[in-house]
Amino acid sequence: MFDNYPTIPYVGFKDENVKTPITFTAQHQDVQPGMEYEMNPLPIFENPNYIPSGKLQDKVVIISGGDSGIGRAISVLFAKEGADIVISYLNEHEDANYTKQIVESCGRRCILIPGDLRDENLSTYIVDTTMSQFGKIDVLINNCGVQFPQNSILDISSQQLRDTFETNIFTFFYLTKAVLPHLQANSSIINTTSITAFAGKKNLIDYSSTKGAITVFTKSLALSLADQLIRVNAVAPGPIWTPLIPSSFNEQEVEIFGTETPLKRAGQPFELAPAYLYLASDDSRYVTGQIIHVNGGTIV
């Protein structure tokens, strides 16, 4: 296991002078949401210079799609800050087990729960397992998602439409409903939306629509839970180098992915994770119903 990964601990840098990639090797994976261990280069999920300060000490965090990409970066950063992690993922077992190994190397516990969150019963199982193992839930991060680019709305089949909405927004409802009875005051729910919710994307009409739904879901839920002092916020990533990219786009699109941003490159998962940490920690006690944009400078 882990033959394609470097030896633990992996921080994503050979030395402090290595810059993040501007362009990528042309590549494509046939199955979503993609496998991180097959990517070239591997995403950078960890900042080697980060100094933890116990912001999430002994908190319990559930992360959907926590096995790789943005979810892995969040899992590792939160573990460094003292949290125990429950990762829901589809079937990317090698990626998930590697993330678990990294989390445990930080001295924290990590539970992996594979399965399709489109089945509402899985959310109940995740919550029951978390409560039996840890006795509480402090933070929920709804992060799973898929995207299937099409040149025209005429090419979006009814099956694709259902798959995209059921994965990208229905699962957020299901997991939130299951978790909510166990959250206390000062708990936090964080949703992953997207720049496409604000700027649109001509070949991701259904995906962008789900991200718009997530954005309004975030704001409405924040209002609903304000009296309980449960905060609800979201992060809107721009182009980030994750397994979803080579499993969504063709080789030519992957090669120049992110170069259209003002910073002229895609972001790396470790550059996004601190936004989630801010929203999960007491640093954001007066923040709810808000969207943090991490997108390389695009104005939306």
Mean pLDDT: 93
CATH H level, superfamily name: NAD(P)-binding Rossmann-like Domain
Shape: globular
Question: Per DSSP, what share of the residues sits in E-state strands of 2 or more residues?
Answer: 5-15%
If you compute it from the alpha carbons, what radius of gyration comes out, rounded to the nearest whole angstrom? Answer: 18 Å
SSE sequence, one letter per element:
EHEHEHEHEHHEHHE
How many helical elements? 8
Beta-strand segment tally: 7
Strand order of the largest sheet: 3-2-1-4-5-6-7
CATH class: Alpha Beta
Helix content: 25-40%
Could you please describe the fold and organization of this structure?
The chain has 300 residues and is of the alpha/beta class. The protein has a single domain, classed as Rossmann fold, CATH 3.40.50.720. Helices cover 35% and strands 12% of the residues. It contains eight helices and seven strands, in the order βαβαβαβαβααβααβ. Helix 1 (69-80) packs parallel to helix 2 (93-105). It is globular, with a radius of gyration of 18 Å. Mean pLDDT is 93; it is low at 5-18.
Architecture blueprint of SSEs:
Elements: E1 60-64, H1 69-80, E2 84-89, H2 93-105, E3 110-114, H3 120-134, E4 139-142, H4 158-179, E5 188-192, H5 196-199, H6 205-225, E6 231-237, H7 251-255, H8 269-280, E7 291-294
Parallel strand pairs: 1-2, 1-4, 2-3, 4-5, 5-6, 6-7
Helix pairs in contact: 1-2, 1-8, 3-4, 4-6
